[in-house]
Write a structure and sequence with these properties.
The complex is a heterodimer of chains A (111) and B (115). Chain A has strands at 5-7, 10-13, 19-24, 31-37, 43-50, 65-69, 75-79, 88-95, 100-102, 106-110. Chain A is mainly β and 111 residues long. Chain B is built from no helices and twelve strands. Chain B has strands spanning 3-5, 10-14, 19-21, 24-26, 31-38, 44-50, 56-58, 64-68, 73-78, 87-95, 104-105, 109-114. In chain B, strands 2, 5, 6, 10, 11 and 12 form a six-stranded mixed beta sheet that branches. Chain B has a four-stranded antiparallel beta sheet with strand order 3-9-8-7, with no helix packed on it. In chain B, strand 10 and strand 11 form a beta hairpin. Chain B is globular, with a radius of gyration of 14 Å. Classes of the chains: A mainly beta (111), B mainly beta (115). Chains A and B meet through strand 4, strand 5, strand 8 and strand 9 of A and strand 6 and strand 11 of B.
Chain lengths: 111, 115
């Protein structure tokens, strides 16, 4: 069955470039979350979308980070002017009833 | 505010021996507690959760966890570890009053099971 799909699975880019990470949630899941897992650290909440409500952006670390969710389905996390400290695994999760299903993540490496 | 502490960066255990991964939490409302496992290059997989009811929760792959309200702990246990249990384990909590709330994760504990 289809789970949460994230693309690309790996992304290597130069410092200062913009990157876009994509998340396809499970069909019918109204909630979508982005988390970040940095090397040697735990999981850090970034942002979540719930239906048509305004997203909770309280976890975004800086204004270089933004996310949108089009049509209540696919979400894109954008990082502008990437820095080396942005290197991490970015995990997306979706939920219908509170239980979260995670994607395999995008491993982002900033050179 | 909510927080989770996993005091051990790594747990080493021989195959066949019992495995315990520790977790303590802090949350203002009722705690909803979760354990996730992450294998290399994979996303998180759900193991088990405590919402209400029995303090001993049984989950996937033979794992269980015991909710202890007085000690604010939710330690993960397995009676007999397998080499294939070697992975990164995350404990997470959210406030039960917020159905869609964000999870607060611990830093993770690397479990290494040796043959």
């Amino acid at each position: 069955g289809a789970g949460v799909s994230q693309s690309p699975s790996n992304k290597v880019t130069e410092k200062g470039k913009d990157v876009e990470l994509r998340c396809d949630p499970i069909s019918g899941h109204t909630a979508l979350y982005w988390y970040r897992q940095s090397l040697g650290q735990g999981l850090e909440f970034l942002i979540y979308f719930q239906g048509n409500s305004a997203p909770d952006k309280s976890g975004l670390p800086s204004d270089r980070f933004s996310a949108e969710r089009t049509g209540g389905s696919v979400s894109t996390l954008t990082i502008q002017r990437t820095q080396q400290e942005d290197s991490a695994v970015y995990l997306c999760a979706s939920s219908r009833d509170g239980g979260k299903h995670f994607g395999d993540g995008t491993r982002l490496s900033i050179l | 505010a909510q927080s989770v502490a996993q005091p051990e960066d790594q747990v080493n255990v021989a195959e066949g021996n019992p495995l315990t991964v520790k977790c303590t939490y802090s949350v203002s409302g009722n705690p909803y507690l979760f354990w996730y496992v992450q294998y290399p290059n994979r996303g998180l997989q759900f193991l088990l959760k405590y919402i209400t009811g029995d303090n001993l929760v049984k989950g996937s792959y033979g794992f269980e966890a015991e909710f202890n309200k007085s000690q604010t702990s939710f330690h993960l246990k397995k009676p007999s570890a397998l080499v294939s249990d070697s992975a990164l384990y995350f404990c997470a909590v959210r406030d039960g009053s917020d159905s869609w709330g964000k999870l607060q994760f611990g830093a993770g504990t690397q479990v290494v099971v040796t043959p």
